[in-house]
Design goal:
The chain has 92 residues and is α+β, with helices and mostly antiparallel strands. The chain has one domain: Alpha-Beta Plaits. It is built from three helices and four strands; from the N terminus they run E-H-E-E-H-H-E. It has a four-stranded antiparallel β-sheet. Helix 1 packs antiparallel against helix 3.
Length: 92
Amino acid sequence: MYGLINKLTAQVGSRDELADIMSAGTQNMPNCKSYVIAKCASDENLLWITEVWTDKESHQASLQLPSVQEAIAKGRPLVAGMECVATTTPVE
């Protein structure tokens, strides 16, 4: 198992649009156990992305999926900053 916790800061006023783009682009990713996009309760521009994959290679492969590539292209202008907060080993 392979997990990531990412902190994604949207351009001011763009968080909901960015969350919608990401949600649409990350459906049906092979070997993805969980992909949660959560709005931060204390920062109106911040999203937390929590991912669980069967393995690191599946995560890397997902970045080449057409739907993910499209989401990256659409969402990139709305991103003010991105940080991988933690890499984890999820427990089943």
